[in-house]
Amino acid sequence: MNLQIALLLSQDGITNGAIYALLALALVLLFAVTRVIFIPQGEFVSMGALTLASFQAGRTPGTLWLLMGAGVAVAIVDGIVAWRRAREGGPHARVASIVGWNLAYPALAALVLFSIDPARLALPLQVALALALIVPLGPMIYRLAFQPIAHASVLVLLIVAVAVHLALVGLGLLFFGAEGTRTPAFSDARFELGPIGINGQTLWVIGASIALIAALYAFFERTLYGKALRATAINRAGARLMGISTVLAGRLSFALAALIGALSGVLVAPITTIYYDTGFLFGLKGFVAAIVGGLASYPLAAVGALFVGMLESFSSFWASAYKEVIVFTVIIPVLLWRSLTTRATGDDE
Amino acid sequence: MSTPAAQSHPVRVRTLPRGTLALAAFVALLAAAPLVLPEFHVTLLDYIGLYALVALGLVLLTGVAGLTSFGQAAFVGIGAYTSAWLTTVSPLPSWLAWTGGSPWVGLALGLALTLVVAWMLGALTLRLSGHYLPLGTIAWGISLYFLFGNLDVLGGHTGLTGIPSLEAFGFAIRDARDFHYLIWAVLLGAIWLTRNLLDSREGRAIRALKGGAIMAESMGIDTARSKIVAFLIAALFAALSGWMYAHMQRFVNPTPFGLGFGIEYLFMAVIGGASHVWGAVLGAGVVTILKQWLQDLLPALLGQTGNFEVIVFGVLMVLVLQRAPEGLWPIVARVFASRERSAAREVPRAEPLPRRTLPARGTTLLEVRGVTKRYGGLLANHRIDLDVRAGEVLALIGPNGAGKSTLFDCLSGVIAPTEGEVRFLGQRIDAMRARRIARLGMSRTFQHVRLLPTMSVLENVALGAHLRGARGVVAASLHAERAEERRLLAEAARQIERVGLGERMFETAGSLALGQQRLVEIARALASDPCLLLLDEPAAGLRYLEKQALAELLDRLRADGMGVLLVEHDMEFVMGLADRVVVMEFGEKIAEGLPEQVQNDPAVLEAYLGGID
Question: Which of A48, A110, A299, B354 is the most buried (most CB within 10 A)?
Answer without folding.
Answer: A48
